Amino acid sequence: MPAREAGLAGDRALIEQAVRDAGAIARKFYGGDYRKWDKGKGQPVTDADLAVDKYLRETLIAARPDYGWLSEETEDDSSRLQKQSVFVVDPIDGTVAFLKNRPHFTVCVALVRDGRPVIGVVFNPVLDECFAANDGEGATLNGKPIRVSERAELEGCRMCAARDMLEHPAWNNPPNRPWPPMHIETRNSIAYRMALVASGAFDATLALSAKRDWDMAAADIIVREAGGIVTAHDGAIPRYNGAQAIQPSMIAAGPKLHAEMLSRVRHINLQR
Fold first, then answer.
1. What is the largest CA-CA distance in the chain?
2. Residues with Cβ < 8 Å from 234, sequence gap 6 or more?
3. Paired sense of beta strands 85-93 and 68-71, if any
4. Along the 272 residues of the chain, how does pLDDT read in single tens digits?
5. pTM confidence score
6. What is the 3-state secondary structure (H, E, C) of the chain?
């Protein structure tokens, strides 16, 4: 096995075990008593977020001290911009679901190299769903291969997105087009939405608001290794570990459905 592949395999094993162990920490808090507060408008955080972040950082950086670190719950350190390999971490993606005792939050870790994820693990500790992928090796759910759906038509598809966004009156104003009837559900965790698309449980997901790198990076490679496509709404390929660590929007779907969705939204000028 070439050295780089051997290194990826070792990193994948390290990350997956750390994420599963971190999920067990989150599970102990879930449904119990813990402190919660707001970092800003619509940005809840809990003792669980911080405990998971602490465990992941201590575990992963101890094992890979030369790797950079970018996490939602750690003060940003610009030294990561000089690192070839960077852990991109969301300790609990979907904190709102966690607070409401809904089993739709995830623990997410990506390894990003040169702006793109080469490993991703997204773990739902309540439902014991571990989605994982590394570059060129396919995507799995609990060790079994997964694949995006083959669907090409939006009408009747399973869409994991905010209903109020898709049913907003502005879609009736040309050049916008109203969305056809679809089976619409959503999840608070962006990474979980994307992972469910990778597994074929949903056909597509869409977000037309800015997301942070840690929301998307781990699930990005899982979708791609499952045969899907991840872009911004204008078709741009996401680059991670930039100075701002922010993405303008997200579309994830199989190739045919992704193209159809892109044709409907790529003209939109989103406010930054």
1. 55
2. 248, 249, 266, 268
3. parallel
4. 344 455 889 999 999 999 999 999 999 999 999 999 998 777 899 999 999 999 999 999 999 999 999 999 999 989 999 999 999 999 999 999 999 999 999 999 999 999 999 999 999 999 999 999 999 999 999 999 999 999 999 999 999 999 999 999 999 999 999 999 999 999 999 999 999 999 999 999 999 999 999 999 999 999 999 999 999 999 999 999 999 999 999 999 999 999 999 999 999 988 65
5. 0.95
6. CCHHHHHHHHHHHHHHHHHHHHHHHHHHHCCCCCCEEEEECCEEEEHHHHHHHHHHHHHHHHHCCCCEEEECCCCCCHHHHHCCEEEEEEEEECHHHHHCCCCCCEEEEEEEECCEEEEEEEEECCCCEEEEEECCCCEEECCEECCCCCCCCCCCCEEECCHHHHCCHHHHCCCCCCCCCCEEECCCCHHHHHHHHHCCCCCEEEECCCEEHHHHHHHHHHHHHCCCEEECCCCCCCCCCCCCCEECCEEEECHHHHHHHHHHHCCCCCCC
The first and second tokens of residue 140, run together, are: 């799995």
